[in-house]
Amino acid sequence: MIQFKRLDHILVCIPEGTTAQARHFYGSQLELEEIPGNHPAGAIWFQMGDIQLHLREEAGGNYSKRHPAFEVVDLQSAKQELESKGITLEYSSEIDGRDRFFFRDPFDNRIELLEFCP
């Protein structure tokens, strides 16, 4: 049996020719720390808490509900921060024991932020 410990990283695909736009959105607007290096296939990497977010250009694309979900310390503050930057929030079905919302990056990748509640 494989014993999984934690999420290490997530790879999100972006359209070809949009690395600079991705670097601006994730680095400047979401204020994530970029991990320097010569990463595989020209990917850019960011640190998000104790996991990494990897972004790599890829041909094609589709508007999907697939997404990574990230637990945050203060969901309300995250909501206010994103809204203050003009980022549209989406809501979905409720889940007992957690609050959550979604947003999309400039490439239509869906991202969920959540906070566990008592």
UniProtKB/TrEMBL annotation:
Domain of life: Bacteria
Gene3D superfamilies for this protein: 2,3-Dihydroxybiphenyl 1,2-Dioxygenase, domain 1 (3.10.180.10)
Pfam families: Glyoxalase
InterPro entries for this protein: Glyas_Bleomycin-R_OHBP_Dase, Glyas_Fos-R_dOase_dom, VOC_core
Species of origin: Spirosoma terrae
Protein name: Phage portal protein
Domain VOC residues, every copy: 6-116
